[in-house]
Amino acid sequence: MNKTLVFGGSGQLGQCLQHVAQQRSFTDIVFLPEEQANILNPDILRTTFEQHRPAYIINCAAYTAVDKAEDEVEIARKVNRDGAENLARLCGEFGTTMLHISTDFVFAGTGNEPLLETDETAPISVYGLTKLEGEQVIPAHTERYFILRTSWLYSEYAGNFVKTMLRFGKEREEMRVIWDQLGTPTYAIDLAGALLHIIESGSTAYGLYHYSNEGVTSWYDFAVAIFELGGLTTRTVPIRTAEYPTKATRPAFSVMDKTKAKTALGLAIPHWRTSLVECMGRLGE
Ligand SMILES: NC(=O)C1=CN([C@@H]2O[C@H](COP(=O)(O)OP(=O)(O)OC[C@H]3O[C@@H](n4cnc5c(N)ncnc54)[C@H](OP(=O)(O)O)[C@@H]3O)[C@@H](O)[C@H]2O)C=CC1
Ligand SMILES: Cc1cn([C@H]2C[C@H](O)[C@@H](COP(=O)(O)OP(=O)(O)O[C@H]3O[C@@H](C)C(=O)[C@@H](O)[C@H]3O)O2)c(=O)[nH]c1=O
């Protein structure tokens, strides 16, 4: 009844979904093999929709290399905008509800108040821009969509900031980490749970939502917590963004207000540190 297809199932969030679906005995979910899941191939996608006739799809597929995207605009746009549009078009045609993931990087990050879904977007990177374009093409094809903007995803799966810090922390005596970019980490396991909750609840409160863990931190404070919980004595030096040049510019402030997700979708959201403790426990197992 809730047959769900997952695109991008081998990425970080996709793997978290596999884990959570198994834990919850959510069995009516298909993690498509790569040859049936290329979101850039409309013919393959149509065959996949015809074969499965899904009630829901979850699009975890994306181009997520933030710095590389500055040089690979075309491919980033293809995956993040055109891929989302290909899926949305089929969702409209097949009456499928689309769950799609976007990012805090759609914001410029120049403010200092928690960002609402209605706040102005103004991406400052190619990744952020192409993700915003992806958000914007979906409503043209279907009314049945949930777009969840999330931020600073990490988990025990794939590559992410937590795993990078643990690796470098073991190899190096000192880490220099930016403290003037503020946001909220999100345990991808929590996000996966939220996505399945939306499906299980049968919600029709379609629309755009913010979803991260609760609280606010900087990358520096996040790194300090990771080292502390990981039992590492790595010296952590707070630096400014200017002291850590990167190809893409990141928002200085991208803390999102989750009131809408909590009230309209009934989501219970853990504090970032609580979830980090959980993830570190699993990484240590
Ligand atoms: N990671 C983060 O910090 C954040 C991520 N997000 C968003 O969350 C979502 C999930 O991110 P995350 O799991 O971390 O990302 P990953 O990069 O770990 O996973 C993305 C997946 O998409 C797949 N993919 C790329 N191109 C295509 C394609 N044409 N067709 C099908 N699959 C494709 C990739 O496959 P392959 O590896 O083979 O290319 C990969 O498995 C994305 O929408 C991302 O923008 C939002 C905020 C923060
Ligand atoms: C490795 C490292 C990073 N940093 C900084 C750089 C950057 O500002 C921040 C995070 O760096 P990363 O490259 O790990 O993460 P980054 O790719 O910027 O993460 C982003 O990914 C995309 C997909 C999103 O949608 C965003 O929400 C966000 O999670 O930490 C340091 O200051 N010192 C370090 O040693």
From TrEMBL:
Assigned GO CC terms: cytosol
Any one GO molecular-function label of the UniProt entry: dTDP-4-dehydrorhamnose reductase activity
Entry keyword GTP-binding: no
PANTHER family: DTDP-4-DEHYDRORHAMNOSE REDUCTASE, METHIONINE ADENOSYLTRANSFERASE 2 SUBUNIT BETA
EC assignment: 1.1.1.133
Family: Belongs to the dTDP-4-dehydrorhamnose reductase family.
Keywords: NADP, Oxidoreductase
Biological processes annotated in GO: dTDP-rhamnose biosynthetic process
Alphabetical list of NCBIfam families matching this protein: rmlD
EC supergroup of this enzyme: oxidoreductase
Annotated RmlD-like substrate binding domain residues: 3-282
Record field: catalytic activity: dTDP-beta-L-rhamnose + NADP(+) = dTDP-4-dehydro-beta-L-rhamnose + NADPH + H(+)
Recorded superkingdom: Bacteria
Pathway(s) this gene product operates in, as recorded in its UniProt entry: Carbohydrate biosynthesis; dTDP-L-rhamnose biosynthesis
Keyword NADP on entry: yes
UniProt gene name: rfbD
Function: Catalyzes the reduction of dTDP-6-deoxy-L-lyxo-4-hexulose to yield dTDP-L-rhamnose.
Protein name stated in the entry: dTDP-4-dehydrorhamnose reductase
